[in-house]
Fold these 3 entries.
Entry 1:
Amino acid sequence: MPGPPNKRQKRDDYQKAQENLKLKRTAQGGNQGEKGNVVLPQKKFYRQRAHANPFSDHMLEYPRSPAEMDWSTHYPAFIGDAAVTSTETASSGIAARHPEVEVADIGCGFGGLLMALSPLIPQTLILGMELRMQVTQYVINKIVALRSQHHDKETSIPGTPTPYQNISALRSNTMKFLPNYFHKGQLSKIFLCFPDPHFKQRKHKARIASAQLNAEYAYVTRPGGMVYTITDVEELSQWMTKHFVGEEAGDAKELWERVSQEELDADPCVKIMSEETEESKKVTRNGGNKHIAVFRRKSNPDWPE
């Protein structure tokens, strides 16, 4: 007689059940008639290491260029046949232009920032990008469940998608493939929240901020766009600042400027970033410090005559 299932078997069974629910909800447009019974996925069944090696081959699927990326499966209420169009656009006979992803949370973890930003900017498409497979699957399943819970909620603007339709997540290695997803100047905000500090000197090359990566962030960020960073490691915050606007920035130094504290105090995204992510809540519970630095994308310098 077989014994009780072990932890791995329980996780596998739970995730299979969640996947079946996700497929059912997606097929029915998030409306199952079970709005009071939709249960959010449980984090304990998505066990994963704290970090993944960005230099390993993870057998990832990614587009060869941004033009080849199909966003309709991520944002069906905004893009594709099920997209909601405004009354004015429909009556005018003008074809609606599909919106593009404007906000990227790189290393989104368990998606706390995505869920908090969604109601703040409900008409802006937000994407979480995460390398860890189990964590990514948790975020995807949670978004599907939240959409089902809120599928019949009325929005403040008639004819607009219901809550949480503007967020999605995918598994990707942004240190290698960021320009494969976004074209030049597409993003208005990038979030780097509590990235792996990689304390050892030989591991610094794996940090999410470097002169090379910051140049890529500058490529996909529009002039006036922001890169938000937060960490509980002061040395890492200083590192990121040096590589955006300091002596280690290289040519990318001409493309960024640090945002003043006065502007940060008035920015609701800073408050959400420092309070709503899982890591920020953990730091608060432990009485740690949070080091915030935000950088604005400057206009491209003129070509020398």
Note: Residues 86-95 have pLDDT under 50 and may be disordered.
Entry 2:
Amino acid sequence: MTSFGPSISRISCLGPRSLFQTCSKVDSLAARLAQQYPRPFSNASRCSWREIRTLNRIPPAQIPYTVRGQFRAYAEARDIITEYEDLPEDYEPRSGLPFRHKPLSQDEATSIFGKGVTAAVANRVLRALHGQRVAGTLQDPDSIRWAPFEKKLMDTGLQWLRDNVEVDEITNAGLRAEDEMRDMEENILEDAERIGIWKPNSGTPEGSSPYEKGVLETIREENKKAFEEEEEQKKNQADEIRESSPNHSWELQTQTPGSSQVELRRPGENPRLKYYLERAYDTAPEAPPEWSNFRRLAPSGLVVLGTLVGCWALSTFYEPPKNSKRMYPDIPPAAATLLTILAANTLVFCLWRFPPAYRLLNQHFIMLPGYPYPFSMIGNIFSHKAFYHLFLNMAVVYFVGTRLHDEIGRGNFLAVYLGSGVLASYASLSYFVLTKNFVSSSLGASGALCGIVACYLTINSSETVRFFGVFPPPDWPSVSSLGLLSLLIFVESMSVWRKAKSTQSIDHWSHMGGYATGIGAGVALNVRYNQRKNGERELQRAEKRNNMSIEDRIKSK
């Protein structure tokens, strides 16, 4: 399982007015890009941000926020990256960048964020925020998606970083915007060349015309020069109006020749997107309410208990249909069951990219310890936000699940999968609530995955393990199923012990809950299987005695 919450709209940290005040002329490329690519953060300028850095002409009143020039305690070393040009090629937004040599201790984390925030969470948040400041993606939703309830934590950490680690956020954002504009312009030229409407070095080279400059060409150049002077005068007048109206520094409208009026507005101002985001934010308060542990755990515990009762009924009373009455008789039952689970997980993964579904997903498809929704104990089992997370989980679920399904049947398999998932979610919720860690969240099928793996290895505890039927080779030392299960639990236990010292966002307690549930289910299924076998033997013996003659019965005694 992984942490972090739903996506938010991309909001540029670059003030367009300050940019255009410094530049000599607005390039018409901005209008073309605004028409072809509906990305409201895109704008263009004749002067580059690398030139703007030396000009220092942006009025302080036009900057959305000020970067203080006071002494920073932790940004003096060379290996603390603070400039966009020094950003490493292997930079990952989720991992962030080091903001100091030594991670925060628990006392320092408490002094910054208050009680309830562990040192691991504090260091992970500060690393991610520092990386966004350097990369110029401080509020970029494609970088890191923060949950609504994490906004207060993010604001506190960002303020601490601005007070202690000096980073020129405006310049870094401008450099990144310049790189994005360069990439987009190259894409436009490549598309134009590909479809044949433009060719490199096409037309007559300048100065190679066999004709002298005509009267019409002279008039055209004079008109163009007069038009440019008029546009420059209008721009200067607009700058004066903007300086006298600082409250409207984010509004920008430009008129380009041969095109309609184009508005480059601040990202995130799409009314429909803002509406869906506000509805998603309303699902949880900014700060966790002052509830008791019982108030947070009891409703979810009732849902888990009801789910376990349903799993028991499914395991006990389910009878597989005849092959002639199945919806897809040509597909093996195990494949049909697992493909349905994969389809459900893929559907929820796609809904995370659909803004109208944000509110539903925040309520019932992600586990929030600070404000838990009871049915999220079930929904988060089928919820993934990252593709690699979905792919890895579903690959293991299908590989192990089909084998377990063939051995125990559909009813038992679904009972193990759902039971392991809800108990793993509840174990994770209990840990976060009891440790007062309310700034975390969890989702994913990892708990259910660990449950079916543990159940399969428990049922076949006396067998040796061979991956894909070929590894390890027969002449190599074999590994028993019980030994592999013990190794998995040992590695997970070590991860739980070391979690406080790491910045990983893996829900190890959910994995431990899944392993425990899978082992219990495997033992119960083995007991039931042995009881059934003993009952069948007794029945065969009774039938045999009934068919024996009186003389044979006396002899058998």
Note: The two ends are 62 Å apart (CA to CA).
Entry 3:
Amino acid sequence: MSDGLYPQTKKSDSSVRNLALAILLQAFRDVIAPRKSSNKEWALWRRDAMDWFFADESYPGSFHWVCEILQMNSEELRMWLRTYKRSNRINKKEMVKRLIRFQIPH
């Protein structure tokens, strides 16, 4: 029986981790980016990113796959997003500042 492409007992290849990190960072950018009146796709990107964060799929590139590769707790990230979504503008700015300083272990 196969352990799949990325068995839990072995740390993922750095190129796969870099890909997973890039996917996660772009999704966060799509959620926290300020509204741009010149970009009509802004709302669509934000909605797609939120859908991605809360989807239950586990295929390569999915939220659960990214969390598995980066060894992150998916529910903690989702909790952060729920809090962010409910927050006022000032609290959102503070949350983004803390997110920018957040480090993912290599």
Note: Residues 17 and 69 are 6 Å apart (CA to CA).
